[in-house]
Amino acid sequence: MILASNRDQHFSRPTNPSRFWESNPGIIGGQDMEPGREGGTWLAMNKRGQVAMLLNILTDIPETPDKLGRGFLVNDFLTGEATGLQYAKSLQEKAHLYNPFNFVSVELKTSTGTPTMTYYSSESDVAEPIQFEIAGNDEVFAVGNSVYNHPFLKVEAGKREMEEAVRKHARTEQEQELINDLLKILKCRTKYYPDPQIYKQAPTYCESRLQHLSSRFVWIPAVDYGSRTHTIILIDDQNNVKFLEWTLKEPINASDPVWEHVKFEFKLE
């Protein structure tokens, strides 16, 4: 498995960088420390070979502040016993308790022996969660801040670039070159604008903000917001995991940002 992810968030939102959690040493990931949301996460994995991600849905409708914290959906999955599909189906019953979200899980160890990826969106016009069985080595999936079947242009371009990076650096000894290319993809500031899907989801946003949101690396200091964390996870066929993160050091100074890098290596159970 090769995963590359950006976290876009307000610079003032307190966050713990990725590490193995004190509350559950079998889980690694960053943690949101916003008051009332402490301990939730946008991306984490456990040593059982399960990875989970939470992505907000872009909308210009103000979020309802008394809704439940979405980050705990990742925690609940990684600490529970349900499969990705079972868990995604359970989200259907309580999706209304949260602001709009996409939930993605990956399970490398399943009862059938075939890895799976499961996707569920609270905003999708497809009522049921979608599960993909990963039978080959060349399947690439890309998810952003829209529903899966209506991707942003930057997500479609990122998928193509990732396919090329993996094809170009397919051998184990090319791992560092692959990491370098994936990080370039995450840090790409190319604006894929105009993007009809971004405009459809946030029609009242000003033109400048929509342009900024059309790039994979988002940087909008005027509203205290941007791509503040990059995560790359590599898992080989011997269950060896490399978990890499680049995150902005707090307090974040947008005019002079400082990036911190951590790397964890471990084996799946």
CATH topology: Penicillin V Acylase, Chain A
Question: Widest sheet: strand order?
Answer: 2-3-4-5-6-7-8
The radius of gyration computed from the alpha-carbon positions, rounded to a whole number of angstroms, is 18 Å
What would you call the shape?
Answer: globular
Mean pLDDT: 96
Count of β-strands: 12
Biggest sheet record: 7 strands, antiparallel
| Class by alpha and beta content | alpha+beta
CATH first level: which class? Answer: Alpha Beta
What is the chain-wise order of helices and strands? EEEEEHHEEEHHHHEEEE
How many domains, in number, for the residues? 1
CATH architecture, by name, is 4-Layer Sandwich
What share of the residues does DSSP label as strand, in percent?
25-35%
Q: What's the N-to-C terminus distance? A: 16 Å
The helix content is 10-25%
**Low-pLDDT segments, ≥5 res:** none
Number of helices: 6
Summary?
With 269 residues, the protein is of the alpha+beta class.
How is this structure best described in words?
With 269 residues, the chain is of the alpha+beta class. The protein has one domain (2-267): Penicillin V Acylase, Chain A (4-Layer Sandwich), CATH 3.60.60. It has six helices and twelve strands. The chain has helices at residues 72-79, 84-92, 153-168, 175-186, 196-201, 207-213; strands spanning 2-10, 15-20, 27-32, 43-46, 50-56, 101-107, 116-121, 130-133, 219-220, 225-235, 240-248, 259-267. The strands form two sheets. It has a seven-stranded antiparallel β-sheet, with helices on one face. Strands 1, 9, 10, 11 and 12 form a five-stranded antiparallel β-sheet that branches. Strand 10 and strand 11 form a beta hairpin. The chain is globular, with a radius of gyration of 18 Å. The model has no long low-confidence stretch (mean pLDDT 96).
